[in-house]
Amino acid sequence: MNAAELRRIRNFCIVAHIDHGKSTLADRMLELTGLMDRREARDQVLDAMDLERERGITIKAHPVTMPYRAADGTEYEFNLIDTPGHVDFSYEVARSIAACEGAILVVDATQGVEAQTVANTHLALEHNLAIIPVLNKIDLPGANIEEAIRQVEDVLAIPMDDCLKISAKTGLGVPALMEAIVARIPPPRTDAAAGLRALVFDSTFDAFRGVVSYVRVFEGDLGPGDRIRLMSTGADYEVKEVGRFSPKPAPVDRLHPGAVGYLIGNIKHPSEIRIGDTVTRVDRPAAEPLPGFRKARPTVFCGLYPVNSADFEKLKASIERFSLNDSSIVFQPENSTALGFGLRCGFLGLLHMEIVQERLRREYDLDIISTYPGVVYRVFLSNGTMREVENPAMLPDPTQIEHIEEPMIRAFIICPNENIGDIMQLVMDKRGAVSKTESMDTRRVMLTCRLPLNEILVDFHDRLKSISRGYASMDYELDGYETSDLVKMDILLLGDVVDAFSTIVHRSKATARGRQLCESLCKVVPRHQFAIPVQAAIGRTIIARETIRPYRKDVTAKCYGGDITRKRKLLERQKEGKKRMKQFGRVSIPQEAFVEVLKTGN
User: Which CATH architecture has domain 197-281?
Assistant: First the structure.
């Protein structure tokens, strides 16, 4: 590829907060470049997954190559990557940004700067991307353009003298944005003398063709028949096919420098390739790999178990394939007396956990149960060693523990002025503290808080939205560890510990949490012929108890009148039978019980 052709390539991504119009803007671009006809169009065409379309969110980053004819008649090649906006999928955004030279920063003119806008902008600036600020939804009656411009300048420190005002829904201003991409985003830089270097920024698994790797070629070119090497493992493969996304995968002869596309080789197993790896040629290998990505560190852990224990191998194989498409998930086998064999999995957040479970159910036809989510604790033992514990079952004996540290987060909450008091109360209820408040405009403030990660796992986001009637937004980052008075709480059914319900909680919240769990289980565990005590315990101390009442057959129904001793004899016999039943009886816990316990809010 000559220098003139290289100058006509533009690689960029769209970054924004949730619902600020990234996928809709991508639709308008596809229409303008002729890749999508208005008649056969559907909204959010790049959100191909059923789950994305149902929830109205982007989960995976989607690459697409578009031909564009500029106003001066020059033909350009646009490589766009549409990215997710939710905090749990920021790893997808980071990988997409590494494959680009520029970013379109979309800000909703009615909402202004939100929490995830700030996080994604900082990510783009870290990678020295050229940023084009864009105000979207200017056609809505609630749009406040001047205020949104002031917020971008004040909060993000991005000059807005030449910002673009568009409506992604109607297409207003999008042609001017296409011209701005040509003018403001630099073409890829490449070293013609260097060997092949291509970055693997995503991959999927095809049952018939093996691993499909999404690559951005930085130097050299790539085509069928080439012998390639993965620099992290040193393994060699042969390329079978290369192609572009337009927006469906389409084979091409070669991928040139600056191109974004896919490669299919004889890579058969998902574990053979790593996201962030560098592909080079066997006959002329590159001297050093491209800087990859910081490895994603899971923050939320839970156990995944098949409902039918015979499906364990299927679950393990499915998770292995799934981790190829989502490299931020980690897993290891574990065993539970209540649930049998399963996997302990780590996720980037609660929505990430929910999406992974739903995709496993849909795409891999698995029926799974998940245990209560937890975080990674640092347990310091009296012998001077430190152990990381993410599973309550692995917590050492309390006599050996010197102290336990829990992960903390720094949260940035943007909320309306009238909700400050309620949100501060919510943060304090969750053992947090507000360190700073900043006015965003006349209507909203940004609260900077520090609170334990464990406290925001289940219902924090829901309560935040309900307090603010949906207007608050939150972003967070990990902020070290802090010593805390934490204890392991067990749930006992009929005197036996059900390890799937064990949790690590703060001592001050243990009684309330135990009472909640016992009440929830009483509603969902079916009644038996004998009474079932449901207890919450810390060590040997019972802190909460509920009883599931037994079924009671009326054995005296046929006694009409007569001596009272007849009735007493029948009732005594029933009592003896129940006692015998209790000795040999087992309590079956339905799957709904696990779901119900997960849902238990405050």
Answer: Beta Barrel (2.40)
Structure pTM?
0.65
Average pLDDT of span 204-229: 83
Domain 378-484 part of CATH 3.30.70.240: yes
User: Parallel, antiparallel, or unpaired: how do β-strands 433-439 and 444-452 relate?
Assistant: antiparallel
Q: What is the C-alpha to C-alpha distance for residues 425 and 439, in angstroms, rounded to an integer? A: 19
CA distance 595 to 518: 14
CATH superfamily of 3-184: P-loop containing nucleotide triphosphate hydrolases (3.40.50.300)
Asked whether the CA dihedral 221, 225, 227, 230 is positive or negative, the reply is positive
pLDDT in tens, 118-157: 777 887 888 788 888 888 888 888 888 888 888 888 888 8
Average pLDDT estimate for 229-237: 83
Angle value at C-alpha 90, between 86 and 95, nearest 5 degrees: 140
Six token digits for residue 315: 């679950």
Q: Which of 102-111, 423-432, 466-475, 555-564 has the lowest mean pLDDT?
A: 555-564
Q: Which amino acid is at 68?
A: Y
pLDDT digits (tens, 9 = 90+) for 256-284: 888 888 888 888 776 677 777 788 888 88
Give the start-to-end residue ranges of the domains of the chain: 3-184, 197-281, 300-373, 378-484, 488-599
Q: Which two tokens stand for residue 582?
A: 């209790």
- Map residue 390 onto helix, strand or coil: coil
> Structure tokens of 142?
């609630």
Class of domain 300-373: alpha beta
Spatial distance between the Cα atoms of 98 and 18, rounded to a whole number of angstroms:
21
Virtual torsion, Cα 512, 513, 518, 519, nearest 10 deg: 70
Fold of 488-599: Alpha-Beta Plaits (3.30.70)
Are 27 and 65 contacting, i.e. CB atoms less than 8 angstroms apart?
A: no
